Amino acid sequence: MRLPRLASALLVALALMPGCSAGKGPGTPAALASDASYHGVEPEPVPSRPSYVLRDTSGNRFDFAAETRGRPTFVYFGYTNCPDECPTAMADIFTALRLSKDALADKAKVVFVTTDAKRDTGPVLRRFLDQWSTSFIGLTGTQAEVDTAARASGVPPGQIGPEPSTLPGKPDQHVDKPGTAAHEHFGPLGYSVAHSAVIYAYDASDRLPVVYPGGITPSDIAADLPVLAGQQ
Questions:
Q1: pLDDT in tens, 63-75
Q2: To pair with 36 at 20 to 30 A between CA atoms, which of 29, 48, 136, 145?
Q3: Which domains does the chain have, with CATH numbers?
């Protein structure tokens, strides 16, 4: 589904969720035909892969544009204590890659950028992402740095949200919304960070041809991966 401009196309999807709330390298495939069709929302004009630098879970400098150039890349902006959308998005991407051919899945990068730099240190991010895959990349930095990365990606920076409801006497547990993926939290849930609940999918030509709002299935994402990789 093509819609006119990223901001307009994602007017609803990019609304902050209160409950959770560069140049091509050598060998890069040619740009996809304009009639390429995806299972998510297709922004038009198609944005380019953004450039920003953060720190990975080991504390190493991570240049997003350089490290992911020429690869299909799934990016999500969220936080580790998110009670529903964030773990579900990570689980959906993980399942989509498992549904794909191994060689194709191995080409894909998965990047989780925190919107909660104060709490999401490298080790915290690593423990969260390891629930699905040790290959998933977690990025953090100062709050100003992660906000800059969000803006470079066309994503609203995270904002402090309302206090979430937790189980009586169990501040680290909450009632899952229907459809929430199984997950663990590693700290009290007495706060929330409102953020966009959208998976951003960059292709092998370093463009953003499709984004996935909530409700997209892993099968939808898996079906798009060959197109993102330039193989269709």
A1: 999 999 999 999 9
A2: 136
A3: 2-11+41-165+174-228 (3.40.30.10)
